[in-house]
Write a structure and sequence with these properties.
242 residues, mainly alpha, 88% helix, elongated
Length: 242
């Protein structure tokens, strides 16, 4: 996912440079060179579209696998999200191919694909967080409150990371729906460039938060063990016992 984020960023920088080059040549009256530069920009746009489709397969595939594991490796639970992901892939590929054929960018071609992406992520969020909540409900009366707090933290991480991604797509769709001014075009470009980064950052946030949580737990545990194993602590414990 880090590699995908870097590739998307590199493509967006290249597309921006080509756009400015096209504008400069147009002002200078060099129409032939400007069209040549524009064709290279279209190729990079198509590459970015297909890369986004592949990126979506990886990120949503990871989410589906996580849901599959949490549900005790029950393959039936993943059928609906998998079908939704396949539909998203087909729609995204069709939109990218039309972009390639027409040589222009019609953001309306991607609306269904992004709507299916939202549906896929909402379904996975509900299944995953719902399953963890159900497990927490069963053990809340047995386990220590600190353990149940861990369940709450996991649910919050899943919902927060999924919500960030869904909100970014919703903002993009709103901008596309209001495609009638220059401000709308700028907003579409900004949200479209941000979606791949958020797509990759959201799952990484979970990994970072889980890793930092483990580090804190390990530090606390090692601190307790060190204090228990020190001579001064042992003397204090023995004196209290006596």
């Amino acid at each position: 996912m880090g590699l995908f984020a870097a590739l998307h960023l590199a493509l967006q920088i290249a597309i921006t440079v080509i756009s400015w080059r096209f504008f400069y040549l147009g002002v200078q009256g060099e129409a032939v060179r400007a069209l040549s530069v524009l064709s290279r920009g279209v190729v990079l746009d198509v590459v970015d579209d297909y890369l986004l489709v592949v990126n979506n397969i990886v990120t949503d595939g990871l989410f589906i696998h996580r849901c599959y594991v949490i549900w005790g490796r029950n393959i039936k639970v993943t059928i609906v999200p998998t079908l939704s992901l396949i539909a998203t892939i087909v729609m995204g590929s069709v939109g990218a191919s039309q972009h390639d054929e027409i040589g222009g960018s019609d953001h309306n071609d991607y609306r269904l694909a992004f709507k299916m992406t939202i549906l896929t992520n909402l379904t996975l969020m509900g299944l995953t967080a719902g399953r963890i909540w159900w497990i927490r409900r069963d053990v809340v009366s047995v386990l220590d409150p600190s353990v149940t707090h861990t369940y709450d933290m996991v649910i919050a991480m899943i919902l927060e990371s999924g919500a960030i991604y869904c909100i970014s797509i919703i903002l993009y769709l709103i901008a596309v729906a209001r495609l009638n001014t220059l401000d709308s075009l700028l907003a579409i470009s900004a949200f479209r460039a941000a979606i791949p980064q958020i797509m990759n950052i959201a799952p990484i946030l979970i990994l970072v938060r889980v890793g930092s949580g483990r580090s804190v737990d390990e530090t606390s545990s090692s601190g307790v063990l060190d204090s228990r194993s020190s001579p001064r602590a042992s003397f204090a414990v023995n004196r209290n016992l006596n």
